[in-house]
Design a protein that fits this description.
This protein has 13 helices and no strands. With 294 residues, it is mainly α. The chain has one domain. The longest helix is centred in the first third of the chain and has 29 residues, at 64-92. The chain starts with a helix and ends with a helix.
Length: 294
């Protein structure tokens, strides 16, 4: 089918944007650690029959270092990164989180330059600058209360650290992807993420309260559908997009999720649409495109 990869990449952006809205609704009552743990376990349960159907072996003939790097990638990118992202989503709302999420691309490029000896172009530098400018414009509010300002600053900081964790996880596994299935690599990363979350819960005194937040009435439907759409379905569609078109094109189309998050947040969550946020979304999309295509 002509442009199948492009269609799948755009559809992946829409699915992830909708999942962010579902996670926002779920996160109003479910603790970020519990939500992250549940969505990863839910996804891995669905990945097992999928890998059987696609005849992907669960044990690959690879070195122990290969497994360790993928596992570590999951600990950092999924266990830590997703938890920070879900917490920032609660603090900032879906629209602003979608804008800050665009920092993921610059961090991947920067870490690629530092650790993988890749080069950085002038367009990528300009793109990163536009994303930072977008965040400043979208979050600036003259005369805002101290509580509101502190909440926004904390949310942005958590989102930045989440993107650093995402980018670190990707850079760790990037050199390995040419040697195995991305689906299998994701499966191992999910195991790493689940392990790290269980480890974190062991050292948190309120762990039972955190886990029980999953059972709060009215949130479980959002948790289930968010996990299915965001962690499983969008991943499968994303993989299809990466397979049938160039990675640079797929990545640029994936980044349009910022637009869809912005729109869904306004329509479903009734988050405000104003000139500052609209300019922020536009600049973030342009900046992310320059980073990916530069």
């Amino acid at each position: 089918m002509l442009y199948l990869g492009e269609i799948l990449s755009l559809f992946a952006a829409i699915l992830w944007a909708f999942a962010v809205i579902l996670f926002k609704k779920s996160g109003e009552s479910v603790h970020p650690i519990a939500l992250n743990l549940f969505k990863n376990i839910f996804a891995i349960v669905l990945f097992i029959p999928t890998m059987f159907i696609l005849k992907i072996q669960f044990i690959q003939d690879l070195s122990s270092a290969f497994y360790i790097y993928l596992f570590l990638s999951g600990v950092i990118g999924i266990g830590i990164g997703d938890t920070l992202f879900l917490k920032s989503l609660n603090l900032l709302g879906a629209g602003l989180t979608g804008i800050v999420y665009c920092l993921y691309a610059p961090f991947v490029i920067i870490f690629s330059v530092i650790w993988l000896n890749e080069t950085l172009s002038i367009f990528q530098i300009l793109g990163a600058f536009l994303i930072v400018l977008a965040i400043l414009i979208a979050t600036y509010k003259r005369g805002a209360s101290q509580i509101k300002r502190e909440r926004i600053i904390l949310g942005i900081l958590l989102a930045i650290f989440a993107n650093i964790a995402f980018a670190t996880g990707i850079i760790i596994m990037k050199p390995l992807l040419g040697h195995t299935s991305i689906l299998w690599a994701t499966f191992i990363r999910l195991i790493g993420g689940i392990f790290s979350l269980f480890l974190i819960l062991i050292f948190i005194p309120s762990r039972l309260k955190i886990i029980k937040s999953l059972t709060i009435k009215g949130s479980f439907t959002y948790t289930i559908w968010g996990s299915f759409v965001g962690t499983y379905l969008s991943m499968m569609v994303w993989l299809g997009g990466m397979k049938y078109t160039k990675a640079s094109i797929a990545s640029a189309l994936n980044q349009t999720n910022t637009i869809f998050i912005f729109l869904f947040a306004a329509i479903i969550l009734k988050e405000p649409i104003d000139l500052k946020r609209s300019i922020g979304v536009l600049l973030a999309i342009i900046g992310a495109s320059l980073v990916f295509l530069g």
